[in-house]
Amino acid sequence: MISTVVTQMFTSYPESVPGSMTRAGVAQLLAADQPVMLKPNLVNDSPHPVTTPPALCEAVINVVRQYTRGAVVIAEGCGDAGLETPEVFARLGYRSLARRLDVDLIDLNTAPLIRRTDETCDRLPEIWLPEAVFSHLLISLPVLKAHSLCRFTGSMKNMMGLVPPDHYAGRFGSWKKAAFHHRLDQAIIDLNRYRKPDFTVMDATVGLADYHLGGARCDPPVNRILSGADARSVDREAAGLLGMDWTSVGHLA
Length: 253
What we know:
The chain has eight helices and eleven strands. It has helices spanning 13-23, 54-64, 85-91, 94-101, 155-158, 165-168, 184-194, 231-241; strands at residues 5-9, 36-40, 72-76, 104-107, 113-117, 126-130, 137-141, 143-147, 151-153, 199-208, 224-228. Strands 1, 2, 3, 4, 7, 8, 9, 10 and 11 form a nine-stranded mixed β-sheet that branches.
């Protein structure tokens, strides 16, 4: 595994993303016909910095296409209680981006599923996940945010978009992934044992200092792009940008 985390000063997505990804070794992961899945954080239809901006996705797609002829897809399963993923794609500009760049959009909330088991997982010894996440190289595109339940949300927690509402809704709230929030840090750890990102590009251009769905923005803006193949290492580095000690974040420690 390539363990380097590259922290790049942000000037613009077209200028900053390619250098960050290249220095972090993305070319070593991409085979000539490798299909690639981009997983932004589109928890609801709030604009950036709550969600991943389409401009970051576009810059990543342009880099990926330098190294592979494989199909590129953008995939997410939103958590909003009242909206479906296609509505979120449309409202945040992903539908128009997909048409312009000729990429498919996948709703992970309704995609065909596969059952996996792992008795070493304390919280999730059984899990249902979309089949497609195992057939693509998975690039996580989170945004830098504090979180109200697990202190920090980054690349590892971004994988929560993979879990289907048919199996993980209800019990602890009205949103689509509510049941997953029970013992959340351990759930994140177990989920990443089943399917962790192969590469991460984190948008730390602004940063949310208090709360993952809004609240205070970092002042001044963090103004960084982070890239790396080890999601936990990227998240640990990113937590420091919010002034957090990563050893105090359950799923990072």
